[in-house]
Design brief:
By secondary structure, the chain is an alpha/beta fold. 43% of the residues lie in helices and 12% in strands. The protein has 28 helices and 20 strands. The strands form six sheets. Strands 1-5-7-8-9-10-11 form a seven-stranded parallel sheet. The chain has a five-stranded parallel sheet with strand order 16-17-18-19-20. Strands 2-3 form a two-stranded antiparallel sheet. Helix 4 packs antiparallel against helix 5, helix 12 crosses helix 14 and helix 18 packs antiparallel against helix 19. The longest helix is centred in the first third of the chain and has 22 residues. The N terminus is likely disordered. It binds glutamine and zinc ion. The site of zinc ion has 6 residues, from loops.
Length: 774
């Protein structure tokens, strides 16, 4: 392949880079500032040094145009709110007194003032702060941050392109401000927002920006005709400005669909599109509109949100096709590299034969540069890289880690019957009632009890070799005794062991399953200064030995009441990991499900009559486009049923979900065929109980009566009032009493008081029930 002489040579670029620094310097500086140990100037200097070092790294690696403005002390959507002046009234005084402290007050709240709400950025695990907009919101431009960061990069001699959240996405991500009508549509503020963007664009132009990127990932979701019209209008107006930089409109995470012709027709200078697997349709859709003649196309061929090396030949073939479809084709990752860790070479504990399959932000950057060079100057100029890439891909495809014949044979032999309980729900419910003999409105918890500093210290001591395994396990047993004795005294009906041994509900299992890799430095920003290290689901999954049975049976040995076994479900195991990209997700889920099915079987054999399989991530992994949802829900619910269907009819299967609106997945909840579901419900005043009831759900349910996200102790009367609301929707025979979620982030004093009140509330309500039931 040779580059077309007519087009300018392909350039390499990225949309954003991990912000934290190689040793999470940013986290330390920001948290130090909050604690008063780091001055504002020192924080600013730390941030500027991290930005400089990122730009130098990118430029040295051969990136032609570096991004600016993607850096953030906390969150880039919050930065956008500041840029357009959308400061909620309750934070205005703080922002006027001190811009930096006011910024953090919006992010984190203060004693007296609530922060902005936080939610997931599309279907990633990054959380942004939700803009609050109302009919009275006055929008004004503040380009300070954007202009300053552009100037910093230009001063280094780099070609730089500011990256902004686009106006349409910004409004679509917003919610009505407190005080505004609940049905207020933030998108109606578009006419007020566009002049603000025009001003920022002019400032950036004056500061030396040739190009500005406007990110519109919200257009990769299903959009109404009115929303598509708004997008058309936005880019007609911004494109029509007299003195403006060139505009590059970017989308990612899925295909652009109906929005593609809209943006292709808009008077902007280029589009950046996702061309990875999940957005492959962009290629055909782009061809169908006749491409982008005379315009710039930035091709996101390197997956920006997973950690596997690129398939160079495949990417070059995509890029080759694209050459005919635009005036200029540049190469990039599909989205900001914010969603992957910094540097795979830091992972010295991973077998080098496996590490060569991994590409974190640094490695992705050099992949992009290589592809751009191959595209610009011909593949013979990257012959060595191509050969190495081919060899690494072959090593992955042929590895025993990714191809375990026993796992594959077992997965292939799965039948429909394996995913079905031996009896209908009604028969099982009767068997369970006889077996468990629980009172009406049984009380339980979601699994974890407080993860105290003391427990975390014990784990750190074990890791550092200060204590041995025997001493650590003794510490865990002490904790389990404590948790059991409290629950018995409080009068809870179905007990838990409290999960003291678990660092994290996914990592704990990943560490014990063959096929999973752990990283040491693979930090990814989850929100603000919180970073997570998702495990890597790299190979075929098997379970060398039982993972939870020891702790559960120890807990059961201490009490006559049923102790609930606690597992993380297959969908959540995938959702909070980096997943393999060399087979369909459903195949991976099935392997994880089979490993968990064995654990469920072992728990039952050891005498566990109630087993909970948590799926808090079922809703969040729902594909962005409605058309893709049925296929996802099919494999997801099948994996759950495969995990749980091997048990006797009188063994009760629970599941748990939280952090979500469940309206979209009520049918899927039923399809799980679990006997009992516990759900977050306290803050929405039992709305989910009503939704379940109207959807015809006929199993048992425990909508949470106690909001565990706050240290506040609910009174008995409050818990009882919520429970009575629950009873309006779900009859007493099928209603459970439990908190919204696990208690691991709470402290013991409030947990004790809250659970005691919850149990008293259950008794009060139970006593008031007509005597005929049960
Ligand atoms: N069993 C887990 C716990 O209680 C569930 C956590 C979750 O839903 N996120 O901590
Ligand atoms: Zn939960």
């Amino acid at each position: 392949m040779t580059a077309k002489s007519a087009a300018a040579a392909a350039r390499a670029t990225v949309y954003g880079y991990p912000r934290q620094g190689p040793n999470r310097e940013l986290k330390k500086a920001v948290e130090g500032y909050w604690k008063g140990r780091v001055s504002a100037d020192a924080l600013r200097e730390c941030a500027a040094a991290l930005r400089r070092s990122n730009w130098r790294q990118l430029a040295d690696a051969g990136v032609h145009e570096v991004p600016t403005g993607d850096f953030s002390y906390y969150d880039h959507v919050l930065d956008t709110s500041v840029m357009v002046g959308a400061i909620p009234a309750r934070h205005r005084a703080a922002v006027e007194a001190d811009a930096l402290d006011g910024y953090f007050a919006m992010a984190r709240g203060t004693q007296d003032v609530a922060p902005l709400e936080m939610t997931k950025w599309f279907d990633t695990n990054y959380h942004y702060l939700v803009p609050e907009l109302g009919p009275d919101t006055v929008l004004t431009a503040d380009s300070t941050k954007q202009v300053a960061e552009l100037k910093e990069a230009l001063a280094l001699g780099a070609a730089a392109r500011p990256v902004l959240v686009g106006p349409v996405t910004y409004l679509l991500l917003a919610k009505p401000a407190p005080g505004a009508a609940a049905d207020f549509v933030p998108l109606t503020l578009l006419d007020r927002l566009l002049p603000v963007y025009a001003e920022v664009l002019a400032d950036l132009r004056a500061a030396g920006a040739e190009w500005v990127q406007l990110d519109e990932p919200a257009l990769a979701q299903d959009r109404s005709p009115a929303e598509l019209n708004a997008a058309a209008r936005a880019y007609r107006d911004l494109g029509g400005l007299a003195d403006r930089p060139k505009l590059l409109v970017a989308s990612y995470f899925d295909r652009l669909g109906e929005a593609l012709p809209v943006l292709a027709k808009a008077p902007v200078d280029g589009l950046a599109l996702d061309f990875t697997e999940s957005a492959a349709a962009n290629l055909d859709d782009l061809a169908a509109v006749g491409g982008l003649p005379g315009k710039r196309l930035v091709a996101g061929v390197v997956n920006g949100r997973n950690i596997w090396i690129n398939d160079f030949e495949k990417s070059l073939s995509t890029l080759g096709t694209l050459l005919g479809l635009a005036g200029q084709v540049d190469v990039s990752a599909s989205c900001s590299l914010l969603h992957v860790p910094l540097d795979a070479t830091a992972e010295r504990d991973i077998d080098p034969q496996v590490a060569r399959w991994l590409a974190f932000a640094r490695q992705k950057t050099s992949e992009i540069v290589t592809l751009a060079r191959g595209l610009a100057r011909g593949t013979d100029t990257i012959a060595a890289e191509l050969a190495a890439n081919r060899a690494s891909l072959a090593s992955r495809a042929g590895s025993a880690l990714t191809r375990d014949p026993a796992v594959r044979a077992r997965a292939a032999a799965v039948t429909d019957a394996d995913g079905r309980r031996s009896q209908s729900y009604a028969e099982r419910a009767a068997a369970q009632r006889a077996h468990l003999r629980l009172p009406l409105l049984p009380t339980t918890t979601i699994g974890s009890f407080p993860q105290t500093t003391d427990l975390r210290a014990a784990r750190a001591d074990l890791r550092a070799g200060r204590i041995d395994t025997a001493a650590y396990e003794e510490r865990i047993r002490d904790e389990i005794r404590e948790v059991l004795s409290f629950q018995e005294k409080a009068g809870i009906d179905v007990l838990v062991h409290g999960e003291p041994e678990r660092n994290d509900m996914v990592q704990y299992f990943a560490e014990q399953l063959t096929g999973y890799l752990a990283t040491r430095h693979g930090w990814v920003q989850s929100y603000g200064t919180r970073y997570v290290r998702p495990p890597i689901l790299a190979g075929d999954i098997s379970r060398p030995e039982p993972m939870t049975v020891r702790w559960t049976t120890y807990a059961q040995s201490l009490t006559d009441r049923p102790v609930k076994g606690m597992l993380t479900g297959p969908v959540t195991m995938l959702a909070w990991s980096f997943v393999r990209d060399d087979q369909p997700l459903g195949d991976t889920a099935r392997q994880v499900a089979l490993a968990l099915r064995d654990e469920v079987g072992d728990l039952e054999a050891a005498g566990t009559s109630v087993i909970q399989v948590d799926e808090p991530a079922l809703r969040e992994t729902l594909p962005l486009r409605a058309a893709d949802r049925p296929a996802y829900l099919e494999w997801a619910t099948e994996a759950f049923r495969l995990t749980t269907s091997g048990v006797r009819p009188d063994t009760q299967i629970h599941t748990h979900m939280c952090y979500a609106e469940f309206g979209d997945i009520l049918q899927a909840i039923d399809d799980l065929d679990a006997d009992v579901i516990s759900l977050e419900a306290a803050r929405s005043h039992m709305q989910v109980a009503r939704e379940l009831a109207t959807s015809g759900y006929h199993r048992e349910a425990g909508p949470g009566v106690y909001d565990i996200h706050s240290p506040r102790v609910p009174t008995t009367a409050e818990a009882a009032a919520l429970l009575r609301k629950g009873l309006d929707a779900i009859p007493a025979e099928r209603l459970w009493v439990n908190p919204d979620c696990g208690l691991k982030t709470r402290g013991w004093p409030e947990v004790r008081a809250s659970l005691e009140n919850m149990v008293t509330a259950a008794r009060d309500v139970r006593d008031g029930l007509p005597a005929t039931t049960s």
